[in-house]
């Protein structure tokens, strides 16, 4: 059974940083494309970033380029390092299987950016 468990969210001031983690199990993590998606209140899901399983190529939406970094390790964990956070980054962040999050999703972790 696929399990994705996000952690690391919280309250941060504008300009601050957070590191999200996603613990994965129940599938071949190393060869699976993984992505991060966020959903702000009253808005639809927004794809944020993805990392390919084969080759590790990385992609970002324009809004986070230069500020967010996606990575993965050999311990079945996906990360999203978020720097220089802005109020518009506030959302529930989900990790998901699939390059465009077309597979399984975790339960999400809340990121609040406020002074």
Which residues form runs of ≥5 with pLDDT under 50? none
Largest sheet, in brief, is: 6 strands, mixed
Helical element count?
Answer: 0
- What is Rg? 13 Å
The helix fraction, in percent, is: under 10%
- From the spread of the alpha carbons, the general shape counts as globular
Give the SSE order as H and E letters: EEEEEEEEEE
Mean pLDDT across every amino acid position: 96
Strand content: over 45%
Please give the alpha-carbon distance between the first and last residues. Answer: 40 Å
Report the count of strand segments: 10
Structural class: mainly beta
Oligomer: single chain
Task: Trace the largest sheet across and list its strands.
Answer: 2-10-9-4-5-6
List the helices and strands and how they pair.
Blueprint: E1 3-7, E2 10-12, E3 18-25, E4 34-39, E5 46-51, E6 58-60, E7 68-72, E8 77-82, E9 91-97, E10 109-113
Parallel strand pairs: 2-10
Antiparallel strand pairs: 1-3, 3-8, 4-5, 4-9, 5-6, 7-8, 9-10
In short:
The protein is mostly beta strands. The protein has strands spanning 3-7, 10-12, 18-25, 34-39, 46-51, 58-60, 68-72, 77-82, 91-97, 109-113.
Question: Could you describe the 3D structure shown?
Answer:
The structure is a single chain. The protein has strands at 3-7, 10-12, 18-25, 34-39, 46-51, 58-60, 68-72, 77-82, 91-97, 109-113. With 115 residues, it is mainly β. The strands form two sheets. It has a six-stranded mixed beta sheet, with no helix packed on it. A four-stranded antiparallel beta sheet has the order 1-3-8-7, with no helix packed on it. The radius of gyration is 13 Å and the shape is globular.
């Amino acid at each position: 059974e696929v399990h994705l468990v996000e952690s690391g969210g919280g309250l941060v001031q504008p300009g601050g940083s957070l590191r999200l983690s996603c613990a994965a199990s129940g599938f071949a993590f190393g060869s699976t494309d993984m992505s991060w998606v966020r959903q702000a209140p009253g808005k639809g899901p927004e794809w944020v970033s993805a990392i390919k399983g084969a080759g590790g190529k990385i992609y970002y939406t324009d809004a986070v380029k230069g500020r967010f970094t996606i990575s993965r390790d050999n311990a079945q964990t996906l990360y999203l390092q978020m720097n220089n956070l802005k109020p518009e980054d506030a959302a529930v962040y989900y990790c998901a299987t699939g390059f465009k999050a077309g597979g399984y999703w975790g339960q999400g972790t809340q990121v609040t950016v406020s002074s």
